[in-house]
Amino acid sequence: MSAEFTIPSDAAMDPADIAQIELYILRRMREISPGDHASIAAGSGINLMGLRDWQAGDPITSVDWPQSSLNNFSPLITRQFEEDRHATVLTLVDASQSTLCGLRNQRIGTAVARAVAAIGFSAAFFQDAFGFVSFGDRFEALHAERARTGRSHVLHCLNRLLRSESVGMREQVGNAAATLSGYLAKASLVPVVSDFLFPNVAAVIDELAAVNTVHDVLLVMVDARLAFDLPATSAGWIEVFDVESGRMQTLSSREATDLTRRVEEWQRSVQWVAQANGLDVVKVGLDRWQSENALSALVAERRVRKVRM
């Protein structure tokens, strides 16, 4: 598996982490859904989902020749099909500056990446389509990858997410919620993986609640206390830098040690607001097995609900 990855050494996860998550998810999904997942089937599906430019690897039988002739066959246009039994899992992923905070390998971004991997491999187990839209500090979309089926596509998505986190790639393709809607053609499962440490979180939840009227939105809240559990210091005043606002601020040692409690209260209030708007919330941390166990079970249960709609 490591040969499929070219991520920088400072990324949130390495190929060994991803391999362990995949093995655990496969074992866990076989336990909780014996005989319930879709079997592998030949063919490209029966429902026409739309048209797109031809890409390497597309079967020649999927080419829409009349449509391609309108632009002189440059490029070729292919038809996209999907089967009814498959669900779509399009994940909104927090790629804001706060996810870079933490100590060594205990960063918020590590928990975010592990959650995305768990969701992606759970979707691949059911042959469901998986994709993502990453967003920044102002809930603006940074990257987007259309949902497709297969383990290789999950690995491609993880590779792209981890590389963009390390090298700071920013595409900025528009508002995250609006971008999300443009990538979904039917009711889908939409996990939102974030620490929710941004100032306009109430407005974001309003947008997600609107998306939830059509799709199944699930908030995956990463426990951010780990990034604010600062070591003890003898200094009376501590100068801190806010990575999202870019401002410097001086805190007393007492205020600095109180940051963990304040972050916990903030996330608790976000959870309350989300639930008041009809959104389910699951909280995950760096306890890998506990988080991945919870996420795999949720994907298994909620994707069945969408397939049956």
Please tell me about this protein's structure.
This protein is an alpha/beta fold. The chain has nine helices and 13 strands. The strands form four sheets. Strands 8-7-6-3-9-10-13 form a seven-stranded mixed beta sheet, with helices on both faces. Strands 1-2 form a two-stranded antiparallel sheet. β9 (189-194), α6 (201-211) and β10 form a beta-alpha-beta unit. α3 (108-125) packs across α9 (288-307). The two termini are 36 Å apart. 33% of the residues are buried. Residues 1-10, 36-43 and 166-170 have low confidence and may be disordered.
Helix-strand layout with pairing:
Blueprint lengths: L14 H18 L14 E7 L11 H5 L7 E6 L5 E7 L7 E2 L2 E2 H18 L3 E7 L4 E9 L2 H17 L6 E2 H7 L6 E6 L6 H11 L4 E7 L14 E5 L6 E5 H5 L1 H18 L3 E5 L3 H20 L2
Parallel strand pairs: 3-6, 3-9, 9-10, 10-13
Antiparallel strand pairs: 1-2, 4-5, 6-7, 7-8, 11-12
Helix pairs in contact: 1-3, 1-9, 3-4, 3-9
What is the mean predicted local confidence, pLDDT?
Answer: 75
Regions with pLDDT < 50 over 5+ consecutive residues? 1-10, 36-43, 166-170
Helices and strands, in N-to-C order? HEHEEEEHEEHEHEHEEEHHEH
Q: If strands are numbered along the chain, what order do they take across the biggest sheet?
A: 8-7-6-3-9-10-13
Number of strands: 13
Shape: elongated
Q: What proportion of the residues form beta strands (DSSP E)?
A: 15-25%
